[in-house]
Design a protein that fits this description.
This protein has about 260 residues and is an alpha/beta fold. Helices cover about 45% and strands about 15% of the residues. Helix 7 packs parallel to helix 8, helix 8 packs parallel to helix 9 and helix 9 crosses helix 10. The protein binds zinc ion.
Length: about 260
């Protein structure tokens, strides 16, 4: 292939004269954790470390979840202007709906997080439906881990979104590390306008721009997934996508602010 042919195809992804710099405006991180994740992951983030990292990267508010919901409740109560709580239930437990209701009505939590892989359920399983009803009643989004078979594939999340068209479903990681899952995350979101995509851990900068162009300005949100991923890398990838400053502002700040009604 001639050199200019290669140049032209790279420019399709982002202009070659554009050296991406970290977006320095205010941000909302739609996916953050405090607590310890042992085992294979072997990562942890304390409340203080999260707040320090937020200062460093100009993150105004972080949406936080951990399977110890009490830990999150205490942290959010201490820093109500900086931390936004999402409740993380195991849907197979009989007290899951009661926990979700309590968190949304009494603790001031702003959303629900589900991890089908960790808790071993399909997104559209019957056990999830009462939780979706609680989210619908409270008018909050449901954030779902995506990208790992057999439980958290985009198509399965699409089945849930189709059943609950009036509940906003955020596909965390927008398909994660597998090209076919990333592509299908975009396809599912195109089909159902209640599906949002979150950027953390997804390796292709080109797909961030592609998603915004395909879905419109409002349905892609930035997340770091700290401590699994580092904000510098996660912010860098979104910046490298070649989105305009206006669109970066939407992905980094406005979309999550509107979605979570912050
Ligand atoms: Zn996470």
């Amino acid at each position: 292939m001639p050199a200019d042919g290669i140049g032209a195809s790279l420019a399709k992804n982002r202009p070659l004269d554009h050296i991406p710099r970290l977006y320095e405006g205010e941000k909302v991180d739609a996916h953050a954790h405090i607590g310890e994740f042992g085992g294979w992951a072997n990562v942890a983030c304390s409340e203080d470390e999260l707040l320090r990292s937020m200062k460093l990267y100009n993150v105004k508010r972080s949406v936080v979840f951990y399977w110890d919901n009490e830990l999150v409740r205490r942290a959010v109560a201490k820093h109500p202007k900086r931390l936004v709580g999402c409740v993380w239930p195991d849907p197979r437990r009989t007290d899951a709906s009661a926990l979700v209701r309590k968190a949304l009505t009494e603790w001031g939590f702003k959303g629900v997080k589900l991890h089908p892989l960790i808790h071993a359920f399909l997104p559209n399983d019957d056990v999830v439906h009462p939780i979706m009803e609680e989210a619908r009643k409270a008018g909050v989004p449901v954030l779902i881990h995506s990208g790992h078979p057999p439980f958290s594939l985009p198509w399965s999340i699409g089945e849930l979104a189709e059943n609950f068209r009036d509940v906003k479903v955020v596909m965390l990681h927008m398909g994660h590390g597998h090209g076919i899952y990333i592509k299908s995350a975009l396809d599912v979101a195109k089909r159902f306008d209640n599906v949002y995509l979150e950027t953390s851990g997804m390796p292709m900068h080109t797909k961030v721009k592609e998603a915004v162009e395909m879905l419109g300005d409002e349905r892609v949100v930035y997340g770091s997934d700290i401590p699994f991923h580092d904000p510098s890398v996660e912010i860098g990838r979104v910046c490298a996508s070649g989105l305009s400053q206006d669109r970066l502002e939407r992905v980094f700040y406005t979309n999550a602010t509107e979605l979570l009604r912050l």
